[in-house]
Prior knowledge:
Arc Repressor Mutant, subunit A; TIM Barrel; three-stranded antiparallel sheet; cytoplasm; coproporphyrinogen oxidase activity
Amino acid sequence: MLGPLKWQSSLIERYNQQGPRYTSYPTAVEFSESFEPDHYQQALTKLKQQQTPLSLYVHIPFCASVCYYCGCNKIITKNRQKALPYLTVLEKEIQLVSQQLDCKPVVEQLHWGGGTPTFLTHEQTTQLFTLLEQHFQLVDDIDGDYSIEIDPREADWPTMGLLRSLGFNRISLGIQDFNPVVQKAVNRVQSEAETEAIFEAARALLFKSINVDLIYGLPFQTTASFLETLDKVIALSPDRLSIFNYAHLPHRFKPQRRIKASDLPSAPEKLSILQHSIDRLQAAGYHYIGMDHFALPDDKLATAQAKGELHRNFQGYTTHGHCDLIGFGVSSISQINDIYCQNHTALDDYIQSIENNQLPIKRGIQLNQDDLLRRGIIQQLICHFQVDLAKYCQPFGINWHVYFQKEIMQLMPMVEDKLITLTDSKLIITNNGRLLARNICMVFDRYLASKQSSENLFSKVI
């Protein structure tokens, strides 16, 4: 296991710029609309030939109410029947993809996200899961990771029982903050009792893992108030915990316009919240995985990182990096070998494509040799905090020292600041630098270097 993080305030403040989260490289902002459905179809044909195991993502965009901080692709409605037309189209998309695969591929990982997947009725949930089982071969409960995002306000014991009986064995709960003042300010009033009930149900029903999402930087948060929430969460003992930085981008996300910038914690207060949260979590036995993620030492993410087997994709950190990813639903992203592609983000365009019997691809990118090389390097840095540049360049017949001469020069100030060590071809991020791994990855991002400004494209690294 890696050692505890070291917080260096002066370095954090100096390096705290905007940058990608690297759920992919190249990032989604590089996707092009010149990438057509035929390109995706060709990738599916290649996938059929290779018989690579799959990770599936299903996007359920519906929410009964809007959370003001949210930047997800969503549809706000309290009418559960509004999901029926969408599910009909989603079914047709699954059939279209299955026709291209012309087989029943093995699935090791499944995730339903949103939106609020538990918005669906029990009948709708059962029908969708059964449909996936008809077209894909889901491995058994021991080897498979089947997760779903839970809104405790939209779930109860019968719902949890249904999910477990279908095959889900992991859940992710949105909490964000237990403080009632903060909850009211972001329009997400969620009692501690509702959350505790889901934990009790998940443990009783033998779900394998519980993840919790928190957000720091929301209106009226203070270090003291957030630590109260964190202590309550630690008492529940989730297996994994994510503490996301709220990025206030009202020009991009309309619901955020209901949050007053004057109500947000100051930049120093945000850093204080994160610093004290890290200290509290490490004292409670959680390991820092990277990119806002923490896990107990026996969690699969922590053990995969210790073995050098951790990966990162559009679903975040994963132990299934050897799987190709197929996304279903509006705005979903797929990753198959050397291509990334995204479905239409506008619901009407998504529906129209599928009704025309066309794969609903809006944009994408096919990676070249340079992309593949840099993807491997960034993946190692973001997951394992070290990389041997010579090792990654060797399969491409590239002299690492010549190819990355400019990047090595850019890394020198980070060496001087003791964020990294660079010995021969081995780059290792120190405990001082692990919170700033995104900055180090950005040095190897060829696309970012060509942009005049990344302002308003990405959140701050801290």
